[in-house]
């Protein structure tokens, strides 16, 4: 498909030296805070698979394209995380 969304993907590991636990396709975006906090980059998993081949098959079935990234910041850690900037939900003291 010419207009399919292309997701970055890579192996999910606990640490750089760990074996691959699973493969994850994800979205990288910006999440705004409020009360004067900065906009921060977040990584949101879209879907996972036990092997790279299965991840590619799932992407095709769901209408996504995939692009492998070798960024170590996206190959470790669990779930959603804030990568840079101030905490996204910094409430002012009243």
What features would you describe in this structure?
It is a single chain. By secondary structure, the chain is mainly beta. It has one domain (6-82). It has one helix spanning 52-62, and strands at residues 6-12, 22-31, 40-49, 65-68, 81-82. A five-stranded mixed beta sheet has the order 4-1-2-3-5. The protein is flat, with a radius of gyration of 16 Å. The termini are far apart. The model is unreliable at 74-94 (pLDDT under 50).
Uncertain runs are 74-94
Enumerate the strands of the largest sheet in spatial order, edge to edge or round the barrel. 4-1-2-3-5
Q: Tell how many strands the DSSP assignment holds.
A: 5
- Rg, Cα atoms, Å: 16 Å
End-to-end gap: 52 Å
How is the biggest beta sheet arranged?
A: 5 strands, mixed
Can you count the helices? 1
Q: Structural class of the helix and strand makeup?
A: mainly beta
Strand content: 35-45%
Bin the helical content. Answer: 10-25%
Q: Spell out the helices and strands N to C.
A: EEEHEE
Shape: flat
Number of domains: 1
How is the quaternary structure best described? single chain
| Mean pLDDT value | 76
């Amino acid at each position: 498909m010419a207009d399919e969304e292309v997701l970055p993907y890579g192996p999910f590991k606990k640490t750089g030296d760990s074996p691959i636990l699973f493969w994850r396709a994800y979205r990288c975006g910006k999440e705004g805070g409020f009360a004067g906090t900065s906009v921060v980059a977040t990584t949101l998993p879209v879907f996972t698979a036990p092997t790279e081949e299965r991840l590619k098959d799932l992407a095709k079935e769901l209408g996504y394209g995939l692009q492998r990234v070798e960024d170590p910041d996206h190959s470790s850690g669990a779930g959603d995380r804030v990568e840079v900037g101030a905490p996204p939900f910094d409430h002012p003291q009243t």
